[in-house]
Amino acid sequence: MRKNRMRRIYDPLHGFISLNDLESFLVDTWPFQRLRAIRQLGGTFFVYPGATHTRFEHSLGVMELATRIFDRCLMAGASADLLDPVYARQVIRLAALCHDLGHLPLSHTAEHALLGPEGHEVKTIAAIESDYLQPVWEKAKEIFPGQAVAHDVIKVAIGEKKLRQLYPGRPLAFSSGDLALGQIIAGDFFGADRMDYLLRDARCTGVSYGYFDYHQLIETVRILPSLRQGNAPDMGVEQEGIEACEALLVARHFMHKRVYQYSKVKSCSFHLTRFMKALLGNQFHQKGIEDYLDWTDHEVLSALQRSTQDPKAPGYEEAVYLSDNSQRYRAFPIPSRIDATAAQHIVNELKLPSEAIGWEFPHTLAASPHAFPVLRRDGRIASSTECLQVVIPIQSHGWVYIAPPFASQVERLLSKFTET
């Protein structure tokens, strides 16, 4: 490792991002370098050609924003329950760099199909605990003797809620400082992860919906007494930051409509998911972390290209559909009340071949983010529900994917469900 030199990487969103020796050491490991070959938005580039940015630059951006949030909270007087501030700052920067290490090729595209409800986080933990990163944690222990650095990084990178879901029977100790630090990365309103991906995805797709005044939001973020049971510290905002919170809500809403849940993007993701299942198999989630990390977008997209030329190759039909826009299945949102029984009724009524239609029912019901504390000008702590004037309703729906010859029939029948 180099001594006493700061490494600087220029980012188009945030300018120069500086790395100390420990962070640079982590960035140079294979699990992090692999993120250069994992597209942030999966197969969205089939629809928005500029969407080829990767988890590599996103993770650097999350580290930069998380650091700014942490520093601003300290300047505002938050120090209690945050461990040693120097150590806490280092943990949150390392956790931000590590939070996406376990992503599949093409990110979230086939995550539920291949990894199930555990998601990529279980692979992120495996990557953090792997031999690849052990030298990083050994070096960190030299700098912070007596600290369980890798353990603390996992707690902050994954968060309490997900860790308790992954390990329901395991006793997990989270201090109030741990909970606050975890929100800096993954919080609904103030999470650096969400801020960076909205801004970066908007810039790279060319749509304008994802932009909001994140400078104002970071300037007004505070660690405040929680409104939830237990009164532990919680991420909140000064009253002057409410408009920035509202802008973030609107940005997220329209990015979902125009990018993340856009029908043409969903269609490409449908075919890519089926192709990846055929290519990687149903047991891919059982691979050891070394074999798992060997797969990137390069291998998947190379196989996709080869499959278009070989009818016997895994996923041949999906590869053909992706190479020819006119053959791609059409994607339509379906009301939440359409379940498997109603779906089968539609198939029977229209006499559709089973291979001509695919269903994606909601995996979980969408949940509204919890209320957060707001520091009013008079010093009183209020709930965000009292202050926000913009409320975005949470919509939970699934999708149906139809071969083009049957698309108009299914669309007409779905419209009847919507009207009734």
Q: Total number of β-strand segments?
A: 9
Estimated share of beta-strand residues:
5-15%
Strand neighbour order, sheet with most strands:
3-4-7-8
Distance between the termini: 66 Å
Kindly provide the radius of gyration, computed on alpha-carbon positions and rounded to a whole number of angstroms. Answer: 23 Å
Q: Roughly what percent helix? A: 40-55%
Number of helical segments with 4 or more residues: 20
Describe the protein's architecture and organization:
With 420 residues, the protein is α+β, with helices and mostly antiparallel strands. Helix content is 49%, strand content 10%. It contains 20 helices and nine strands. The strands form three sheets. The protein has a four-stranded mixed sheet with strand order 3-4-7-8. A three-stranded antiparallel sheet has the order 5-9-6. A two-stranded antiparallel sheet has the order 1-2. Strand 7 (373-375) and strand 8 form a beta hairpin. The radius of gyration is 23 Å and the shape is globular.
Jot down its keywords:
420 residues, alpha+beta, four-stranded mixed β-sheet, three-stranded antiparallel β-sheet, 20 helices, 9 strands
Please outline what is shown here.
This protein is α+β, with helices and mostly antiparallel strands and 420 residues long.
What layout of secondary structure does this protein have?
Blueprint: E1 7-11, E2 15-19, H1 21-27, H2 30-33, H3 55-75, H4 85-98, H5 111-115, H6 121-128, H7 134-143, H8 149-158, H9 160-166, H10 176-186, H11 192-205, H12 214-220, E3 221-225, E4 233-238, H13 242-260, H14 263-280, H15 289-293, H16 297-307, H17 316-323, E5 330-334, H18 340-350, E6 357-360, E7 373-375, E8 381-383, H19 384-387, E9 398-402, H20 407-419
